[in-house]
């Protein structure tokens, strides 16, 4: 083989350097956000609405328009900025349609059927938008009604019935019953995790599933949390089931590190190994109870945090730990 | 094994590789696209919005409390010097409403028809030759304008409703903008228009924190505008630079304090009993943020809009005129 001369070697290096500069330039330009690129890729989507969208019949209500269907790419065409809430939780399809009790210009209501990817996703969007002080109903797996609207979750389906006027209670409930009858229920035991939170002192209507970034920590996902209030104080109790006791312990340690990195200070003696932190005048505790990471968040006093830690711990042990 | 290259072989090899490189370069040059993909024809001339501000009016802010939207609007505008200080006889006025969703007016997700009716009437009283009402709805436009009551209020008030259609869009580039570049904008309804008034409800917004007067211009964007949600605060600032209206009215008689921008339940609303009128959109939004329990710090686009010279976050510095709605 011919040996490369120094000149050839230098030439080769120069060429490689030029290629590297070109590559860097391409990567830089690719990083620049150009909405027209995404828009061009979706140019034909507006015309891709499915015709003849199947929709459940609602006894006693007449359709007041065609049914519509929206997927992950077009969901924002219906609900604009709220779309991200569903997309982040795990969304499949939205079907919606307006109905009226009688044809004409009277009150109408619109039904939104959100098919989520799994039951936890449906529960997350249901609890994430729960209206405080609403009247709970015995419909579906969970539901509530306000002056003009009804909201429910059934399996992987999240449903909203939004009335054009108040005073359509009977129509909304009848419609919801029909929809629940037509929707598959969630698998038995899939939501037992929320039962790991005690009912005593829980503020009604505050139980929610936080799918990600709970309390600002990116590793706290799929967290069931609820607000609790007693005469001595208030705060949030939470549980997050993990695959193993080791994983739960790792999560607890990671959250403690997160708290400390944000300036939290340890207060008093640990509670069976669980340290009590103070952060900006509020108190935090987290520990692993078998495969469940459990804790107290945003407690108004150290004494309250300790008391509720004991209460939650007793409840978890009585429940046997894992859901 | 071959021996060292002689000059002839070297030149031949150099020529072949050079030729290949030249062909590749020629192909690349012929495929060059310095501007990137665009949504509109290269031949469509760009449109730039005129400045619709009444310069002698300066920066003014009016805050009115009350329960009646028409009375609140009337009083708020009177406190600015009356709509006649802005709309002159012969003016052609465009009212940019929020008709984004096919929702009933009681849910306050869109411009309330009571407010629209009153503003149209005031424009007529000021001598406006023509009043146009428009928006590029998110849902089906015909349904949106009908079910929100906006169409009826406009038609009964003698205004002209312009629903979005493909031929009404023109490419707009915001100078120095990174997002709105040759982007389709609902611009043709502005042909002949001499004054522009924005009418916005006060709403929380899942993405931007709040939907107020600056964000109202999002309703002029066409195409797959939801891509801008990825950089919502930047696009709101660019919207503020794209169009400088005559004035805006922010309807906080009932504010959507949760689950915005669509809401859906009456329990998402709170009777904040406030109407804000201003020639300074940044100041108006900074003022309205308080109705949602927010401070301007919660809305990063406000500080950025202020830094861009679009107004002031310190709305109190405008010495706002405050009052109760009078009939």
3D structure, described in words:
The complex is a heterodimer of chains A (323) and B (327). Chain A has 8 helices and 15 strands. In chain A, the strands form 2 sheets. In chain A, strands 1, 2, 3, 4, 5, 6, 7 and 8 form an 8-stranded antiparallel β-sheet that branches. Chain A has a 7-stranded antiparallel β-sheet with strand order 9-10-11-15-14-13-12, with helices on both faces. Chain A has 323 residues and is α+β, with helices and mostly antiparallel strands. Chain B has 327 residues and is of the alpha/beta class. In chain B, strands 1, 2, 3, 4, 7, 8, 9, 10, 11 and 12 form a 10-stranded mixed β-sheet that branches. The model of chain B has no long low-confidence stretch (mean pLDDT 94). The A-B interface holds A 1-2, 32-40, 42-43, 45, 65, 76-85, 110, 129, 131-134, 146-149, 151, 160, 162, 164-166 and B 1-5, 36-39, 100-104, 106-107, 138-139, 143, 147, 178-179, 181-183, 205-208, 211, 223-224, 226-232, 258-262, 264-268.
Approximately what portion of the residues of chain A adopt beta-strand conformation?
A: 25-35%
- Radius of gyration of chain B (CA) equals 25 Å
Q: For the CA atoms, what is the radius of gyration of chain A?
A: 27 Å
List the quaternary state of the chains.
Answer: heterodimer
Number of helices of chain A: 8
Largest sheet of chain A: 8 strands, antiparallel
List the helices and strands and how they pair.
The complex is a heterodimer of chains A (323) and B (327).
Chain A: H1 6-31, H2 35-41, E1 62-63, E2 68-70, H3 76-79, H4 83-89, E3 91-100, E4 108-116, H5 119-128, E5 135-137, E6 142-145, E7 149-154, E8 157-163, H6 169-182, E9 208-210, E10 223-230, E11 233-241, H7 245-261, E12 265-271, E13 274-279, E14 282-289, E15 292-299, H8 302-319
Antiparallel strand pairs in A: 1-3, 2-3, 3-4, 4-8, 5-6, 6-7, 7-8, 9-10, 10-11, 11-15, 12-13, 13-14, 14-15
Chain B: H1 7-30, E1 61-65, H2 69-79, E2 92-96, H3 113-125, E3 130-134, H4 141-147, H5 150-156, E4 160-162, E5 169-172, E6 183-186, E7 195-205, E8 209-211, H6 232-242, E9 247-256, E10 269-270, E11 274-278, H7 281-289, H8 300-307, E12 321-324
Parallel strand pairs in B: 1-12, 2-3, 2-7, 3-4, 7-9
Antiparallel strand pairs in B: 1-11, 5-6, 7-8, 9-10, 9-11
């Amino acid at each position: 083989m011919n040996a490369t001369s120094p000149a050839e070697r230098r030439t080769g290096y120069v060429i490689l350097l030029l290629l590297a500069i070109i590559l860097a330039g391409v990567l830089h330009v690719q990083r620049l956000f150009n909405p027209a690129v995404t828009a061009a890729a979706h140019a034909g989507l507006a015309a891709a609405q499915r015709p003849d969208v199947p929709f459940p019949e609602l006894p006693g209500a007449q359709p007041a328009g065609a049914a519509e269907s929206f997927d992950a790419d077009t969901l924002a065409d219906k609900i604009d900025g709220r779309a991200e809430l569903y997309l982040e939780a795990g969304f499949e399809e939205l079907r919606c349609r307006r109905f009226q009790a009688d044809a004409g210009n009277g009150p109408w209501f619109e039904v939104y059927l959100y098919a989520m990817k799994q039951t936890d996703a449906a529960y997350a969007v249901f609890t994430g938008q729960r209206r405080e002080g609403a009247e709970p109903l015995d419909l579906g797996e969970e539901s509530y009604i306000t002056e003009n609207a009804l909201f429910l979750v059934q399996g992987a389906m999240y449903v909203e019935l939004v009335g054009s006027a108040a005073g359509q209670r009977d129509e909304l409930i009848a419609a919801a019953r029909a929809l629940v009858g037509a929707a598959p229920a969630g698998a038995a035991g899939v939501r037992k995790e929320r039962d790991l939170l005690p009912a005593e002192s829980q503020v009604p209507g505050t139980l929610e599933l936080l799918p990600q970034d709970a309390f600002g920590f990116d590793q706290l996902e799929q967290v069931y949390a609820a607000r609790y209030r007693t005469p001595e104080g208030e705060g949030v109790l939470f549980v997050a089931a993990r695959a193993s006791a080791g994983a739960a312990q790792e999560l607890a340690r990671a959250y403690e590190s997160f708290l400390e990195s944000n300036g939290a200070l340890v207060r008093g003696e640990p509670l069976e190994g669980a340290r009590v932190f103070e952060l900006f005048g509020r108190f935090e505790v987290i520990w692993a109870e078998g495969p469940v990471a459990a804790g107290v968040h945003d407690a108004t006093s150290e004494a309250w945090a300790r008391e509720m830690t004991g209460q939650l711990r007793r409840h978890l042990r009585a429940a046997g730990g894992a859901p | 094994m071959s021996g060292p290259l002689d000059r002839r072989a070297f030149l031949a090899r150099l020529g072949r590789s050079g030729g290949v490189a030249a062909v590749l370069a020629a192909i690349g040059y012929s495929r060059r696209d310095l501007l990137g993909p665009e949504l509109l024809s290269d031949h469509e001339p760009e449109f730039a919005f005129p400045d619709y501000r009444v310069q002698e009016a300066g920066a003014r802010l009016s805050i009115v409390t009350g329960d009646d939207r028409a009375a609140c609007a009337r009083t708020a505008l009177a406190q600015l010097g009356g709509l006649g200080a802005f709309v002159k006889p012969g003016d052609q006025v465009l009212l940019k409403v929020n008709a984004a969703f096919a929702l009933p007016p009681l849910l306050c997700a869109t411009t309330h028809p009571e407010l629209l009716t009153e503003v149209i009437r005031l424009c007529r009283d000021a001598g406006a030759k023509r009043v146009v009402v428009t928006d590029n709805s998110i849902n089906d436009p015909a349904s949106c304008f009908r079910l929100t009551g906006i169409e009826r209020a406009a038609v009964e008030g003698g205004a002209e409703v312009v629903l979005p259609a493909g031929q009404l869009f023109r490419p707009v580039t915001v100078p120095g903008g990174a997002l709105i570049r040759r982007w389709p904008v609902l611009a043709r309804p502005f042909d002949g228009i001499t004054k522009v008034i924005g009418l916005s409800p006060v709403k929380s917004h899942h993405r931007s924190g709040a939907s107020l007067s600056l964000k109202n211009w999002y309703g002029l964007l066409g195409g797959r505008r939801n891509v801008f949600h990825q950089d919502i605060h930047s696009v709101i600032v660019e919207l503020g630079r794209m169009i400088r209206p005559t004035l805006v009215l922010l309807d906080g008689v009932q504010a959507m304090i949760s689950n915005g921008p669509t809401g859906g339940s009456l329990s998402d609303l709170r009777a904040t009993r406030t109407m804000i009128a201003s020639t300074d959109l940044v100041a108006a939004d900074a003022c309205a943020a308080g109705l949602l329990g927010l401070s301007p710090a919660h809305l990063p686009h406000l500080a950025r809009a202020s830094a861009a010279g679009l107004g002031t976050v310190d709305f109190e510095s405008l010495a706002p005129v405050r009052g109760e709605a009078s009939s």
